[in-house]
Write a structure and sequence with these properties.
The model has no long low-confidence stretch (mean pLDDT 81). The protein folds into 3 domains: 93 residues, no CATH class; 127 residues, Glutaredoxin, CATH 3.40.30.10; 238 residues, Rossmann fold, CATH 3.40.50. The longest helix has 39 residues. It contains 15 helices and 22 strands. The strands form 6 sheets. It has an 8-stranded mixed beta sheet, with helices on both faces. Helices cover 42% and strands 19% of the residues. The chain is an alpha+beta fold. A hairpin with a 6-residue loop joins β20 and β21.
Length: 549
């Protein structure tokens, strides 16, 4: 019989080939699907595998009944196990299960984020201007922020298929990047991201995705390092704001020497872009035209001339409707008032003082480019949490009553220059004879009228929003955040994921060392040896007993 089987297999060399070809094809099909996906070649290989398997079954049927059943049973068991494995694999793809063992829960979304993402009723496209092959000029810190963002967006995608994420390489996808910069008026930096929905878009810079702090290095120098990740907070907050319908309209007054928003080096064009990227509509209006007040917030950025009375009357009526004013007042060397001073003092308790704040210790390159102290307030919380400073150039200050609250003050040691005529004549500030004072001057104040609920944010400088100064410290973020706060657009959400702290091994005491040595080195091995000897003797006794019978 054995000779007959050998003879039969020699007569079917094709069957011998199929015996090895079928499992080989199966392996290639799975490997190709894993690395390449379901392409045309994948389906061709799958067809070849099916034909090979069918041929092998056919040859098995041609043999005896006994062997046929045996072969078919093996094939059926194989496919049963394979089918179960595929089903489990597909279930894990659709309903992934993961366990977050990190102490900071870096791979788990908060319940608030899960609720927001699951309830999205519109498509969301998130474009990240960086991929795994993009050189990160931020070094290890930049790579950590990118990895955290990537993990966070992956969790968003799993929760809701309406969210799509695309990673662009600024070097390879230059045409796509250029389209974002031109058509959508965006400045694209490596690691930034944009969230696009039918109702608008949000632009988030990479540096906003982390909470920063300062720590001393081995040489005693302060270094800016990451304290916590804010990717989830920023993305979820953006989604919440994009759920709101309609755009808030920001009116930007020009015509009296204010900072313009047209595209030029000295303008606030970058601020305008950021406002539009945050789903605001910005309208430029002139003080020479009738002020109709068709907006939600008015910006007056450093008028150097007196605003016409008709326009001031329109602004007063605008605020009586419960609207908002951001008023920036630079020191005037010609001592020209804006025309709003009396109104702001009487109704909002904010009195502009036409003097220059000077600080020798807390300044950037020049004592008139002061770095003021940020006070504790919901509007400035993000500056304090991220250790971001502000740089104000040629700033004035305000006297305030109990109607207003202070947001920004000078540090001790600063003083106010009163003789502006002398400064205009000499073009210099006498820092050699600086007065010794610890007086606190209010450089930014916020007031809300209790009757009509209107709000005024007064700032002693307008230069900080110009294009060349928006990148300094938190200047740009402070202004954008102020607009969000005043218009109640800032989502009440705070989600920070602290860095994983390195775990240090506990040093054992002398008593603990002796205990572990006795238990694990002496007692347990000795116990195993004794148990082995007992088992050996027991089995030997049983064998001797069986032999004697």
């Amino acid at each position: 019989m054995k000779n007959g089987e050998n003879k039969e297999e020699k007569m079917n060399p094709f069957k011998q080939i199929l015996k090895y070809l079928t499992p080989a094809l199966l392996f290639v099909v799975f490997a190709f699907y894993f690395f390449q996906g379901s392409t045309l070649i994948f389906w061709l290989l799958t067809g070849a595998f099916i034909l090979s398997l069918a041929a092998q079954i056919y040859f098995s049927i041609q043999e005896g009944t006994q062997k046929t059943k045996k072969n078919l049973s093996s094939v059926l068991y194989f496919f049963l196990v394979l089918s179960l494995a595929v089903i489990v694999y597909l279930l894990f793809l659709k309903y992934p299960v993961s366990f977050d063992m990190t102490s900071a829960k870096r791979y788990t979304l908060t319940p608030k984020s899960e609720e927001v993402v699951k309830n999205l009723s519109f498509d969301v496209k998130i474009v990240v201007f960086q991929d795994d092959n993009t050189p990160d000029f931020g070094g290890q810190t930049g790579s950590m922020i990118y990895d955290n963002l990537k993990n966070t967006l992956e969790m968003y995608k799993r929760l809701n298929p309406r969210i799509t994420v695309e990673f662009l390489n600024p070097e390879k996808d230059k045409l796509r990047i250029k389209s974002y910069e031109q058509l959508k008026k965006m400045r694209v930096n490596i690691g930034d991201l944009v969230i696009e929905t039918p109702s608008g878009k949000r632009y988030i810079e990479k540096q906003e995705l982390a909470k920063w702090t300062f720590r001393q290095d081995q040489f005693g120098q302060p270094n800016r390092v990451i304290e916590a990740f804010l990717s989830e907070e920023k993305v979820t907050s953006a989604l919440i704001s994009l759920m709101e319908t309609g755009k808030s309209v920001i009116l930007w007054l020009t015509g009296d020497g204010e900072v313009d928003i047209d595209e030029s080096q000295e303008s606030a064009f970058f601020i305008k872009q950021e406002l539009e990227n945050n789903n605001f509509e910005v309208k430029k209006i002139s003080s020479f035209e009738k002020f109709e007040g068709n907006g939600d917030l008015l910006v007056i950025a450093g008028p150097s001339k007196t605003i016409p009375k008709e326009t001031i009357a329109g602004i007063e009526e605008f605020l009586k409707k419960g609207k908002i004013l951001i008023f920036m007042k630079d020191p005037s060397l010609d001592e020209i008032s804006s025309g709003l001073e009396t109104f702001l003092k009487e109704k909002y308790g904010i009195e502009p003082v036409n003097q220059i704040v000077v600080d020798l210790k807390h300044a950037y390159q020049s004592p008139i480019n002061i770095i003021p102290e940020v006070e504790n307030h919901p509007l400035t919380d993000f500056l304090r949490s991220q250790n971001l400073g502000l740089v104000f150039s040629l700033s004035s200050y305000f006297n305030i009553t109990d109607k207003a609250v202070s947001l920004i003050k000078n540090y001790p040691g600063a003083w106010a220059e009163k003789d502006l005529k002398k400064i205009k004549q000499t073009g210099q500030i006498d820092v050699a004879n600086a007065p010794k004072t610890d007086a606190k001057m209010v450089i930014a104040a916020l007031s809300e009228n209790k009757e009509d609920k209107s709000k005024v944010l007064a700032l002693g400088d307008s230069d900080f929003i110009r294009n060349q100064m928006t990148a300094l410290g938190g200047n740009k973020d402070f202004f954008i955040n102020s607009v969000n706060y005043l218009l109640n657009k800032k989502a009440p959400l705070s989600i920070s994921k602290p860095l994983e702290q390195p775990r240090q091994m506990k040093m054992l005491s002398d008593g603990e060392k002796k205990f572990y040595f006795f238990v694990f080195v002496i007692f347990l091995p000795l116990l195993v040896i004794v148990m082995g000897i007992l088992v050996f003797m027991k089995r030997k006794k049983l064998r001797n007993f069986g032999a004697s019978k």
